[in-house]
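FORM 7B: Structural annotation worksheet

SECTION A. Query
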Amino acid sequence: MNQNPNEKRTFAQWLFNPFKFIAGYQALLIGLAAILLASLIGSLSNTHFDGVLDVHTGLQAPLWFFLSEGLINWISLVIPLFFFGLIVSRSSFRTIDVIGTQALARWPYLITAVVMLPDANRKVLEYLTAKYTQSHTVIPIDPTDIAIFAAAMLLTVLMIIWMVALMYRAYAVSCNIRGPKAIATFIISLIGAEVLSKTAILLLAHKL
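SECTION B. Predicted structure
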């Protein structure tokens, strides 16, 4: 990955394409810290990142399961992107750049883990579940709970969009791929990674 130390680093680049400045082992360390911290914070509210793009809350599980989910999601996308990079890219690239930048690209879920902490999210979800299943036990909620839940859901959607954009930029920069081939192979990889991660996590869940 080519990096020009004199290149101007704008705020927009840090938000949407930090991989021009951070790659390799530095990106890997920061990214892994973000993945594990998001999993740790998520465990406090039983928020699971149970798929490359998935976020669900409610199921209690041991800490190792939350941590494993984050690592599985990361590795599940790295594998297909790496192999597509070998096939499509016309230049050589470093494996550590692919691994590291994809880890760093998952950092927006750290924000998601934080916004899912308020107990209002659990209360609203339990209320909706009780209503859907027509349960006689309905958890009382108030307008504040609904407002917090709505804000958390909106931010979660925005974080997913942001994370996907970062994943694509990480792939394009680390493998030096552009244009339709980059977009097509990224979409295929993302779909395959979602299936792979969900399968692996479901298999792991049987050990709970």
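SECTION C. Observations
The beta strands are 47-48, 56-57. Residues 143-175 form the longest helix (33 residues).

SECTION D. Sign-off
Analyst initials: ____
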